[in-house]
Amino acid sequence: MAIHLSSSIKELPGVGAVAQKDLKALGIATVRDLLFYVPFRYDDFSLRKKIVDLQMDDVVTVTCQVNMIEARPASKNRKLILVEAIVSDETGELKVVWFNQPWLTKQIRVGSRISLAGRVENRFGLNMMNPVWEQEGENTVTGRLIPVYGLSGSLTMGRIRNAIGNALLCVYELTDWVPDSILVQEKLPDLCDAIVSVHAPKDRSSLNRAVERLKFNELFLHQLLFAEIRRGLKKASCFSIPINEESLKEFVSRLPFQLTQAQRRACWEVVQDLAKPHPMNRLLEGDVGSGKTVVSAMAVSRVLEEGKRVVYLAPTELLADQQQKALQRFLPNQTIGLLTRSRARIGNESVKKDQILNGDVACVVGTHTLLQESFTMNDLALVIVDEQHRFGVKQRHALLEREQGLQAPHLLSMSATPIPRSLALTIYGDLDLSILDELPAGRKQVATAIVSQEHREGMWKHVLEQIREGRQVFVVCPLIDPSDTEGNASVVQTKKELKQGSLNTCSIELLHGKLKTDEKESIMEKFRKGEIQVLVSTTVVEVGVDIPNATVMVILGAERFGLAQLHQLRGRVGRSDHQSYCYLLPGPVMGASLERLRALESTANGFELAEKDLQFRGPGNVFGDSQSGFPDFQLATPADVDLMKKARDYAAELLKQDEKLEQHPLIREMIQEANDSVHLE
C-alpha cells in the first residue's frame, strides 16, 4: 500500500495499535503530523576521535574493535548488572560500561568492529558509561547530530526514529506555502529540505537554517492571523459606551489612594476605546503591583452604569475569587458574581450555578473555563481577560465573533508579565497596548538578596523577627512532595524542617495545586486574615495574590525558576508601606543560573528584567537540554525578535499588495486551517 501525507500512522512499517495510541497521545495521527513532530534537542556525536586523543567530558564517536565483553553483578548492589567491555583502536584501549543491559553480551561479539557515542568520563581512568552503539559504518545513532524526541507510553526512541525515517519518504508531497521571493531574499531552504534537515541534519549549519525556516513559518502565519483579526474587528459592531467625565471623576474620588500618571493614561485610553463603534482589543501590560485591577474596575464601572454587562476571566479559581472580592470593594453599589467549576457566589452569598447562568447578574467573574460553560449573556459589552499570556489569540478572536445579530464585546486583556514594548507589539500584534510602568506612591523597593548556605541561619532569624513584628511570610518551593532525588525543596519537607527548626513557634500551613479548591480558598482566607504566619507554597501564589501584610518572600531552589517567574513571586510582597524582603536560596549546583539571580538582586524594574531575560536566553538554542517556544509553537521563542520583525514586515507588505490573498491561495488555505484548528501565541 502506498503511503502518503494523509495516511494514518498505522500504515507505517512497525507502527502497531499500541504505538498508534501512544503517538496519538502526542497529537500525531497522520504521516504529515509525524513529519512536523520536531525533536526537542539533539545529541551532537559528530565529533570523531581516536582513543589516544580522548579527554574527560568529550562528547564523541569512537570507532573501535571489541576485545572483551562480559556481564556481572555489581559488588555493592547484586541486583545491578554491569556489562563491561574493553575496546581498542590503533592508538590505545578504552573501558566501556553499560548498566542493566545483559543482552548486550549476545549482541556485541568479541572481535567485531563497532561505533560508540557518548560522554567520556574519568572514573579510575578514562571510560564511557552507557554509550549508544551500532555496527561500524551504520551511522544511524553515532557520528552525527542525533535527534531526540519526546516519548509517550511504550514508545521508544528507536521506534519513533524509524517511523519518522519511513515518513520522510513522503516529504516531497509537501506544498511550500511561503512565497519564493521571501525564501530567496532571506536565503531560507524550501519546506521539504527543512523538514529533512530537522530530522536528519547533515551538520549544525544545515540544522540551524532548517530551524530558522520552520520558526519563520510559525511567526509568519502568526502575523497573518493578526492581520485577519484586525481586519475583522474593523467590520464588527459593538455597544458604544459614551465617555462620562462626571462618572469617571466620581469613581476616582471614591478611591482610597491616588492614581499614578500611568494609571490615569491607561484609564483614558480604555475609556476612549469603549466609546468607539468597533470593539476594543487592548492589552494592559503592567509590572507586578502597578495597579491593573483599578483600571479594569473603572472600565467595569462605566459599562455597568450604561446598563450593559461584563465578564471577567481569571486563570485560576484562587485569582477569580480574589478579583471578585476586589471588584466588589471598588464597586460597592454593584452586584458582582463569581462562577467557577467549584462554586458560585453573588456578592458574599453562595448561590447555585443556575442563578448565575440563567440570572441577571450584570458582572460575572470566573475562570477561563467559563467560556466552556452553557453560559450566555445578553447585552455583553466587555470581556476582561486577566493574565492574558494564558489565553490565546484564537480564544480572543472567538470572543469577538458573536452569533449573527449580536454585538461583539469590547476586550481588555491584562498581563503582569512585562516584556519589551517592541516584543509585545510583535507577539500581541492584534492588540493595542497600554503600559503601566509606575508603582503606586509609598511602595518601597523589595530588598532582594541571594543567600548562600553559610548565611541561611541568619536569614531565618531575620524572618522570625519580621513575624514577631506582626508580618507574614511566603516560602516558595519547586515541588510538592520530597520525590526529587537531586534534593530539590518540596513544600511537605520544607514545612517539616521549619516546624522542627527556625520557625517552630510559628503557625505554618501548606498551599499547592493538589489541594481542593475549597481548601485552597480557606487557607488563603486565613492567611489574608493573619491567622497563618508562614505560607509554604508552590508557585500557585505566583500571580495576583494580594496580602499587604506579607513582607518576606523566601524562594527555595531559586535557580529552577525563570527571571519572569521570580519577579512575579517577588511581587507578592512589597504591597504596602512596610519594607519587604525577597530571599533567593539556590541549590548546590548553580552554573549559569547565578548571573540570572544577580540580575534580580540588582534590578527591580520588570521591563528591564525582561530585556535581560532575552539577553540571557540569546537567539534560542536547539542544542540545549530543553527548548520551549510560545504555547502552540514548536520552535519559535520570545528571543527570536529579529525573525518576528521580519515576519511582521513581510506579512504587512504581502497584504498591502494582495489584501484578499487572491494571488496567494495557499496562504489563504493556511490561515483558514489555523483559524479552524489552532490558537497561536
Structure write-up:
The protein is an alpha/beta fold and 681 residues long. The protein has five domains: 9-42 and 155-175 and 189-199, no CATH class; 47-143, OB fold (Dihydrolipoamide Acetyltransferase, E2P), CATH 2.40.50; 204-234 and 639-677, no CATH class; 239-436, P-loop containing nucleotide triphosphate hydrolases (Rossmann fold, 3-Layer(aba) Sandwich), CATH 3.40.50; 447-603, Rossmann fold (3-Layer(aba) Sandwich). 36% of the residues lie in helices and 19% in strands. It has 22 helices and 23 strands. The strands form four sheets. A nine-stranded mixed sheet has the order 13-12-11-14-10-15-16-9-17, with helices on both faces. A six-stranded parallel sheet has the order 18-23-22-19-21-20, with helices on both faces. β5 (113-122) and β6 form a beta hairpin. α6 packs across α7 and α9 (261-274) packs parallel to α10 (292-305). It is globular and about 90 Å long. Residues 618-631 have low confidence and may be disordered.
